[in-house]
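Problem 3 from the worked examples.
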Amino acid sequence: MHHTELRLHALFLQGLDGDATAYRGFLKATAPYLRAFLRRRLVAWPDQVEDLVQESLLAIHNQRQSYDTGLPVTAWIYAIARYKLIDWLRRHARQDSMLLPLDDEDALFSSADQEAGDARRDVATLLAALPEKQREAIVHTKLDGLSMREAAQLLDMSEAAVKVSVHRGLKTLAALMREEK
């Protein structure tokens, strides 16, 4: 396991056992990772990063009893942050859509939404055909936007192994797509 995972996992478990100092240390150590994760994804809205860091920390705190201690705590943290980010993006998109005039655009967007949903299902089906290691490496790096280093930490693999898994997985996906045509 990576040093960060080991440290955060230990602090978190101590916190769950009632050690308030360890728990505060866990939250304090987690915040910079959340901030970096969210800052990369909210380049156009830098003033929202801190609010989402706090929302994520609050969600981590509120959901702490649901954590499966057999899983990497970093993966659990990033999943919560990702959900908070997606919620924020949905709210933001909805607010922006209220500013749009509603003419024939409804038909355009409904078909675009349908196509996007179909594409997501197609991608999910293709990814399901891959071995788990390749699928997770692709999802983390290509869909979630994590760096190779971040994906390696989450997957408890070397960066080289993540790169190889992504490369092999993409090669397999390309072959599967050629077969479907």
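Problem 4, a separate protein:
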Amino acid sequence: MQFHPAKYIRKPFIVCALLGFAHMAAAEDAAPGNYRIDPAHSTILFSVSHLGTSELTGRFNDIEGSFVLDKDKASKLDVTIKTASVDTNHEKRDAHLRSPDFFNVKQYPVMRFSADKVSYDPQGKPTRINGKLTLHGKTKPVTFVVSPVGAGKDPWGGYRAGFNASTTLKRSDFGMNFMPGGIGEEVTVALNIEATKE
């Protein structure tokens, strides 16, 4: 019996996806330069204790931003998130999270993380980002621990780099005090960022 690849791979985008995997298999350390965050391939996740019995998880679906990556020069990062894009996979809860009890999206439609201090290890990989988070009308210092994922050329002639970053916030620091005890004070935040080099 003869095998006919065309019978199984009929769509060009499937071929592109396979080429993408081949490129990423040879991932490298991210090259210095200016990067633009790719919203379609980036995610901001959060989790918080609920009633002391479980962890509620959610995400924000609207993110944009850019960063400069260069251990020998001034590195910086600027990320903007629309608070109304909060998504916990529960329509009624999401409406409550958008209300004045929580994010108060009408008064504070965006949150922003801005940083101009990046720490690198001896191999030149970023390890920590120190900056300021503006949320719910308050601005506080925040440090993210960074883990590079990889970098390399993509199937469309561009260059991409990916990073994971995480931190833990106290929601009361940002004036979000609704239902203390029932909802945890500490919120874990995780950024999974993919960006294109400009």
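Solution to problem 4. Confidence is low (pLDDT under 50) at residues 1-26. Helices lie at 5-8, 12-25, 91-97.
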